[in-house]
Every structure is written in C-alpha cells, then in structure tokens.
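Protein modeling request. Please complete all fields; requests missing the sequence field cannot be processed.
Requester role: graduate student
Desired output: 3D structure, token encoding
Chains: 1
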Amino acid sequence: MSYVTNTLSNLLEQTAFMNLTVGNYIMILVACVFLYLAIAKGFEPLLLVPIAFGMLLVNIYPDIMAEAYVDANGIEHAAGLLHYFYLMDEWSILPSLIFMGVGAMTDFGPLIANPKSFLLGAAAQLGIYAAYFFAIFMGFGGKAAAAISIIGGADGPTSIFLAGKLGQTGLMGPIAVAAYSYMALVPIIQPPIMKLLTTEEQRKIKMEQLRPVSKLEKILFPIVITIVVCMILPTTAPLVGMLMLGNLFRESGVVKQLQETASNALMYIVVILLGTSVGATTSAEAFLNMDTIKIVILGLIAFAIGTAGGVIFGRIMCAATGGKINPLIGSAGVSAVPMAARVSQKVGAEADPTNFLLMHAMGPNVAGVIGTAVAAGTFMAIFGV
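Delivered output (385 residues):
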C-alpha cells in the first residue's frame, strides 16, 4: 500500500499544478488572451499564435527553456527544446532570415517611383530616438535604452537583433513581445493619431498615379542600397543585406525557386522558430516585473511618436507640394509591412471611398524598414558593437 501511495505522491509532485506560481498562472492567462486576439480577432495570427503558444509552454514547463548543464555526477544534460531556438535569436540568425523573406515578398517599386518616401520613412523613426531618451530618463542604461527604443519602429526582428547585439538578452522577451504586440495592434493604435493630426480635407487628398518603374531600376535598387547603407553603417549588413538579397531574388527574375523558398517555406519556418522562442522568454520570473511595465509603456510612446512624426512630416510635404501629398501616408513610415500601409489606405478611404493610397503608402512603409535597420546600426556604432 505504501508503494502505491508513494508512487501516486511522486506523480502528483511531478505535475505542473504542484510547481507553478501565481505569476505562471497570470502568464498562462495572458497567453490565452493573445491566442484569442490572434484566432478570434485576426490580429497578426502568424506572429501571435507562435508567440502566445511559446508563452504558454514556458510557464507550464519552464525547463523547456533550460540551458545545458553538467550535474554533480559529471553527466551532461541537454538544454530545453526552445532554448536551441532562442540561441538562433541571440546569434541574429532568425531576425536576418526574416528580413530576407520580407525582401523576397516586397515590391520596392513605390519607393523607387517616389524617392521622397524616404523622408517620410525617416520622419517616422522619430519615435525611436524619442523613446531612447525617455528610457534613459526612466533609469535604463544606454544599451538597454537603445534596445527598447527600436520598438518604436514596430519591427520585431530588428528589436530582437539589436537586443542581442547590445547584450540585452535579459530584456529580449519583453522587448520582442511589446514590438510584435504593437505590430499586431497597428490598426487600433494608428487611426486615432492620424485623424487627430490631419483635417478631413487633407485625408481626402488624391495623389497622382505613380510612374512605372523599369526592371533595371528594380534590379539596381537592392544592389545600390546595400552598397551605400552598408558602407556607411557596416553593422547593418545582416539586416539590410538580407533584406536586399531577398528583394534581388524577387526582381532579378532568374532565381524564381530561391524567391519562392525565401518568401514562403523558409519564411514560415523561421516565423515558427522565432515566434515560439520569443514567447518562451516570457516566463513569469522574467516578465512580471517593473522593467517590463516600463518597456511596454515606452514602446507605446515610441510607436505613437513615430506615427505622429510621419504624419506631421507628411503635412509639411503636403504644404510644400501644394497639396499633392496626402499626409496619411506618413504614418506608414513605421516598418510594420504591409499593415501600416493598409491602415493609411483604410483611413483615407473612410474620408473618401474613391481614394486609393495603398501603393503610395507602401513607399514610406518599406523606407521605414530600411530606416529602422539604419537606426539599429546607428546605435551599434554609438556603442562600438
């Protein structure tokens, strides 16, 4: 009888119920909320589903993120499954591959046809630099502040990349979750800011059709951008280089198989690995603290200021061109591709259903991707990484 009792007792002690803290249950609830938003509401499900499930797993079974170790008897123990995924985040492998997939899926034609879009993309990076100083004010060190501030670009892979490069792996979980959450919430956060900073007449502005872009221009663009940007900021090569390589796959027309692989199979594999490993960094011990709350607040401030910066500069360009530019496309300067461009189109269509801003907004949108990578490279150069 005692054998049965001891066996049942040991089994009970091995269940998660006996080992979870209140914090773990809170994080499990948060994971379920994220899953609801992704599945029921359709908020960036490709990102939120793996992130939320990684969050769920690590708070039920923390050892899934455990590092490899050697016990007192000299026996080697392997790390947890998601720890190996996470190492590819730390080593910047997965964020760089994500950029290659984005490049393979993205048409840079609107940006080439309207180079002024670079200015709108740059203006939307204002949130990043503003958040950096806010983070310093709130007590974070220089490198931590830089890693946090990139959330303002609404670019999850760049946030992970910079956090790893600056040695801020302890903050990577909250930073990544905040960045991806704000990417998913672009349709909710941006419209009120856009409407507040523009008039009804400005939102109704119709822009001229973009000029056709030649195949030669599209082929030369990724090559020229890689040379120029990486010569100035070599540390951006993993991101900008992979982004432009993916785009060259697309535009060259001679490596269709590589373009299809980078934009489909490889992209989705990387999203699974990246999403689950990011979610798995959100254990209750690492996530439920004051620093996380500060990071979430700073990310929202950065994203709001970035959106406002793009719209305000859009108004300046509108005035300078005699009303030829709709200021709404400035909000797409954050690098949530293509969600931010779609929001510009949606808000413009609400003012005038015959207004089509999507292709015009894609220019600042892809410029924002490059701008966020440049901002990350600038911080790495500042800190000598």
